Amino acid sequence: MDRPEWTREPDLASRRAGGGVVWANDELFAERENLIKPAPAEFRPYSFGHKGQIYDGWETRRRREPGHDQAVVRLGLPGVVSGVIVDTAFFTGNYPPFASVEAIAVAGYPSPEELAALEWTTIVPRSPLAGDSENFFAVADRHRFTHVRLTIYPDGGVARFRVHGTPVADPRLLDLASFDLAALENGARVVAASNMFYSAPSNLISPGSATVMGEGWETARRRDDGNDWVVVELAAEGVPRLAELDTSHFKGNAPGWASLSGTTDPDAPGAWFEVLPRTRLQPDTRHRFPVDPGRALTHLRLDIFPDGGMARLRLHGGLTGPGRAAFSARFEASSASSVSSASSTDR
Q1: Using one digit for the tens of pLDDT, what is the confidence trace for 151-173?
Q2: How many C-beta atoms lie closer than 10 Å to residue 175's C-beta?
Q3: Mind giving me the DSSP string for 92-112?
Q4: How far apart are CA 199 and CA 33, in angstroms?
Q5: Model-level pTM?
Q6: Tens of pLDDT along 5-28?
Q7: What is the chain's percent helix, strand, coil content, to nearest 5?
C-alpha cells in the first residue's frame, strides 16, 4: 500500500532521536521501551520466556475488569505532529481493537505523576486498529508538543509507535549566535536529494553520531558521469563558520570528494554560491573545515563525488537578525495556548 506523505517526516519519538517511554500502567508481557525502538519489529516463533511468547513490542496482560492501558512517550524532538503509526506487527490474536492518542506541551522535566495531573489534547480520537499491521492516523493539530500518550482499548500488544512531524526547537534553550544551523533538532530539514536508495538523507542531520553505516545517507552506485547531492533548508537564515562532513563507518563506499554551496533563494537561477570548494574526503573520518563567514544562507547543498555514503552533515554558525526573528516566531506560533506547567521545581 502507498504510505502517507507525512511518514517521510522524522519520527519525533524515536529512541535514536532521544525519545523515551516514561510510563506505562502495565507491561507484564513485553516492555514499554520496545515501542520506540528505531528498527522494525521482529518475531521469533517458539521463543518463550517465563511469561510466555517473547514479543518485540509493548504488551499488557488480559484485562478482567473495565478500563484501558496507556503508555506515555517523551518526544526526543518536540515539534508539530503530522501523523502517528500504531504498528501491531506480529500481534494477531492479542492486538488491541481500538486506540487513541493525546498530546501535551510541558515546560521543564515533569514526572509521570505530574503529567497525569495535566490537561491533555486529543490528536487521534478512539479509532479501530487492524492486527499485524501499520495503522496510519493523520493529525490536524498544528501545535508543538513535548509528550504523547497512547491509549489502547482494552488491552493487548503494540509493536511500534511512530510519531512523525516537524521538530520545533525552543529558542530559550539555544545560543542562537553559535549552534548547528543544519541540525534536525533545531528545525532544519532535507528538502531535496538526488538519491536515497539505501537510506534516508534526513539521517545526515539527525541528532548524535551515527553508530552504524545504516544510520547515515547512502546512495546507489552511479554508472554515469553525474554526482549525488542533497539540499537542506536550514533552521533559519544564518552565517556559517564551520562545516563538518562525517564519513564514519563508510569505508569502501565513502565519497571521494565533496563540496558545499549556499543560497537565500534556492529557486533563483545563479543564486547559489560556494561555501566549501570541492574537497577530498577520507573514508571513516570526521572532517571539519572552517568556512568563510561572509555570506548568509537559508539553504545548504551538499554535493558528493561521484556517489557513496555520509554519516552526518553539520554546519555551525549563528543566525542573522531576520533569522532570529523567524526562528522565534516559528516557536511562538506553534506554542500559542499549548504549554502546560509542571511544578516550579522542574524549571
Answers
A1: 999 999 999 999 999 999 999 99
A2: 9
A3: SSSS-SEEEEEEEEEES---H
A4: 24
A5: 0.91
A6: 999 999 999 999 999 999 999 998
A7: 15, 40, 45
Query: 40 and 185 in one domain?
Result: no
State which residues form the domain around 64.
5-167
Does residue 338 lie within any of the structural domains? Answer: no
Q: What CATH number does the domain containing 202 carry?
A: 2.60.120.260
Q: Where are the alpha helices (DSSP H) in the chain?
A: 112-116, 321-335
Backbone phi, then psi, for 226, in 5-degree steps?
A: -90, -170
Question: For 89-139, what is each residue's pLDDT tens digit?
Answer: 999 999 999 999 999 999 999 999 999 999 999 999 999 999 999 999 999
DSSP assignment, residue 205? G
* Dihedral of alpha carbons 273, 319, 215, 243, sign: positive
CB 138, CB 6: distance < 8 Å: yes
Instruction: Count the Cβ atoms, other than its own, within 10 Å of residue 54.
Output: 14
Q: How far apart are CA 16 and CA 78, in angstroms?
A: 14
* Neighbour count for residue 117 (Cβ, 10 Å): 11
Of 75, 300, 101, 230, nearest to 166 by C-alpha is: 75
Distance CA 148, CA 169 (A): 17
Residue 43: closest CA among 52, 33, 53, 28:
53
Q: Is the pLDDT of residue 347 over 50?
A: no
> Are 181 and 296 a contacting pair, CB within 8 Å?
no
The number of residues in the chain equals: 347
The span from the CA of 260 to the CA of 243, in Å, is 9
**For residue 42, which amino acid is it?**
E
pLDDT at 346 over 70: no
Q: Structural domain tally of the chain? A: 2
